[in-house]
Amino acid sequence: MISNFFSLAGIETSFRLADIHSPVKVGIILTEKCNLSCIFCATECGFDQNSYNDIISPNMCYEILDQAHKNRVQEIIYSGGEPLMYKFDDLINILEYGRERKLKQTIISNGTLINDDNFPILENLVDVVSISLHGTKDTHNKITCSDEYENTLHTLMLVSNSKKISGSILYTLNSYNSNYQDFDHVVRLSKELNMELYVARGNDLGECSINESYPVLGNLNKIADRMTSYNNDGYNIKFSNCVPKCVLSTDNQYLATSCSAGVGICSISPRGEVRVCLQSDESLGVISNENSLSEIWQNKEIVNFRNMTNISPYCASCKDLMHCKSGCKLEANGIYQMDTMAKLKISEKWEEILGKKARINCRELKITKQLFWTISHPICKISINYLEVCKSLMKKRPVVLNEILNCSDEQISQKDIIMLLVFLYEHNLLKFYS
Ligand SMILES: C[S@@+](CC[C@H](N)C(=O)[O-])C[C@H]1O[C@@H](n2cnc3c(N)ncnc32)[C@H](O)[C@@H]1O
Ligand code: SF4
Ligand code: SF4
Question: What are residue 206's phi and psi, to 5 degrees?
């Protein structure tokens, strides 16, 4: 159950995410090795190849594929590191094994190691090949710290010409390619090659957290505006990873995507560790004969994650929670953190109001049996923990909002008070005075 909330307005609590018994998609990290060193890489695999050189054993893959088949998993996503760094003969045996079990198979690759010789073998065994391309030649090479643009382009052409598989381009948005020149270039290519284009917003993970490549809110909305403008002209460009509705401007909110980590998808590391998604480092259990995927999928920690037990009160009060699932909960190098873009959005809103004088703007405020305050118009419930904050907003004289930050006891942090004030602001529950 969701706890520590400001409000439950509009949230459907009867559907229990915890009851989902197996993932729909399983990602397998074949290897943590990579031949590139992308500046935003969440797995940081290109940076210290000696410390991240694990590869999964074929036997572990067969075990995962058997269990996936038994649990009616629909799709296996082979990723890495770079999956084509995996020994090619072993990769083919694994793909054949998955094909025999009628699993949909997708490879995500940087495209540099797929060529005229190995592609005809691959295209008989997989359903989808997704290739990462991040901009014009100069930008792509700069971002990937390589000179591989032409090779990647050649692979895109092989995929595009294939009659057997479908392909897509993955554009990972970061501070180096948040401009129209790079984006338009990749959009044009996707049209020429007749391939779907997905934009992943760079997540605040791994290298992206530490080297200034995080795309930030303004850049995300700039590219979202461009996506909308293309989509209005008949394109169908989507985000591939989760982008919360609350961080997008109104015209772009139809592009919002949900986080399916730990709900519909999981990922398995080279050591057989089950993780909530490809970007996570946290092991939830190691797959073996005695410890099956479905058992791990229902352990307490992952059920709590699925139930969003530890999400911020700001998200717990959001009417879009069931769709969004609180955005990326792994950002800022932690499990169960708040989505970094959503945090940036709250900071921006707080900047707008922090020096202003305000009072609470409602007709009725009362304590209910469950210790929650009910504010009428709109109806919402606020945890009793925020009582002091609300009281200071009810005084006859309006208060300067940043002065309220020190008014509560240690039960709630200043960060939570800011979230409450922004929440009230966004729901027209603050009346401002000059
Ligand atoms: C980790 S890579 C592995 C497969 C392959 N090496 C490749 O680059 O396509 C899978 C996808 O994740 C994207 N990615 C890497 N770091 C990311 C980050 N910090 N946030 C969001 N996506 C990221 C990559 O651009 C790529 O499209
Ligand atoms: S994003 Fe892919 S290609 Fe780039 S360093 Fe990471 S694993 Fe390698
Ligand atoms: S659940 Fe949280 S991150 Fe998602 S839209 Fe609502 S407030 Fe934003």
Answer: 50, -135
Q: H-helix or E-strand containing 348?
A: helix 340-353
Find tokens 């982008």 and name the residue. Answer: 243
Residues 44-80: tens digit of each pLDDT: 665 554 544 589 999 999 999 999 999 999 999 999 9
Report the b/e string of 154-181 with b at 16+ CB within 10 A: bbbebbbeeeebebbbbbbbbbbbbbee
Residue 55: DSSP 8-state: B
Of the listed ligands, the closest to the CA of 135 is 1
Cis peptide bond upstream of 378, omega within 30:
yes
CA distance 354 to 356: 6
Share in percent of the chain as helix, strand, coil (round to 5)? 40, 15, 45
CA distance from start to end of the chain? 41
Query: Among residues 335, 345, 339, 315, which one has the least CA distance to residue 327?
Result: 339
Which tens digits make up the pLDDT trace of 125-160?
Answer: 999 999 999 999 999 999 999 999 999 999 999 999
Rg (CA), the chain: 24
Distance 210 CA to ligand 2 centre (A): 16
Verify whether ligand 1 is closer than 6 Å to residue 135 (CB atom): no
Residue keyed to tokens 């997008």: 248
Mutating to test ligand 3, I would choose from 12, 252, 339 the residue with most ligand atoms within 8 A of its C-beta, which is: 339
Asked if 426 and 317 count as a contact pair (C-beta separation under 8 A), the reply is no
Instruction: Count CB atoms within 10 A of the CB of residue 381.
Output: 18
**CA–centroid distance for 217 within its chain:** 15
- Closest approach atom of ligand 3 to CA 256: 5
- How much distance in Å is there from the Cα of 283 to the middle of ligand 1? 20
Query: 56-75 as b/e, with b when 16 or more CB fall inside 10 Å?
Result: bebebbebbbebbbebebeb
Its pTM stands at 0.90
Task: Tokens for 368, please give them.
Answer: 């209910």
| Calpha distance 6→420 (Å, rounded) | 7
Give residues with Cβ within 8 angstroms of 233, minimum separation 6.
Answer: none
Residue 293 and residue 67 in contact, taking contact as beta carbons nearer than 8 Å? yes
How far is Cα 317 from Cα 381, in angstroms, rounded to an integer? Answer: 9
Is 37 close to ligand 2, i.e. is its CB under 6 Å away?
A: yes
- Ligand 1 center to 171 CA (angstroms): 9
- Give the C-alpha separation, 119 to 155, whole Å: 8
Sequence letter at residue 225: D
